[in-house]
Amino acid sequence: MLTIRIMTIDDYDAVIDLMKQTPGISVRDADSRESTSRYLERNPSMSLVAESGAMVVGCIMGGHDGRKGYLQHLIVLSEYRRQGIANALVEHCLLALEAQGIRKFHVDVLKTNPTAAGYWQAQGWQLRSDIDRYSFVRSGDENA
User: Fold this and answer.
1) How far apart are CA 79 and CA 62, in angstroms?
2) Residue 93 and which of 48, 68, 108, 137 are 20 to 30 A apart at CA?
3) In what helix (H) or strand (E) does residue 58 lie, and over which residues does it extend?
4) 47: domain range?
5) Closest Cα to residue 73, out of 27, 10, 137?
6) Residues 15-27: pLDDT tens digits?
7) Strand partners, 61
8) Is there a domain that residue 113 lies in?
9) Helix-then-strand count for the chain, H and E
């Protein structure tokens, strides 16, 4: 039986394992336990895990800046895909963001992850060509 529930920091190890097992997903210093704990505290009830029995088989992290919502790390183990788990995680996350008054959402997809790009496009999300995202890492650490 599949269950979707709010992610807690106790799920950290299972979620990091999912990330490491999933091609196209990068694990960076920003994904540390400490950073993840801050993110979950700042964005309560917006990050979720999908469980089959006691095993975490999917996750999504969601948050907002007060105006726009951001979805990150949508992952479903390959053997659990094509069962509607990703769609259910996204829907639960969007509902949690909407409950906070957020109506516009963004997701970043690495150009090296065509599977993710195909998923989001198939769900009706639009690839933007009107903006470029610039990043700056103060420490100079490329893995931040």
Assistant:
1) 24
2) 137
3) strand 55-64
4) 2-122
5) 27
6) 999 999 888 888 9
7) 72
8) yes
9) 4, 5
The predicted pLDDT at position 102 comes to 95
Q: What is the CATH number of the domain that holds 12?
A: 3.40.630.30
Instruction: Provide the residue type at 87 as one letter.
Output: N
Nearest-angstrom CA–CA distance, 137 and 129: 24
Count structural domains, the chain.
1
Residue type present at position 73: H
Q: How far apart are CA 90 and CA 47, in angstroms?
A: 10
Radius of gyration of the chain (CA): 15
Tell me which residue of 139, 134, 106 sits closest to 120, measured CA to CA. 106
- Only one residue has tokens 């420490």, namely 139
Angle CA 34–37–43, to nearest 5: 140
Distance CA 129, CA 88 (A): 28
**Residue 20 exposure: Cα atoms within 13 Å on the Cβ side:** 8
> 21 vs 141, which has greater pLDDT?
21
Instruction: Look up the pTM and report it.
Output: 0.89
CA distances 54 to 11, 49, 78, 131, 137, Å, are 11, 11, 17, 41, 37
Query: Sheet harboring 55-64: ordered strands across?
Result: 2-6, 48-52, 55-64, 69-76, 105-107
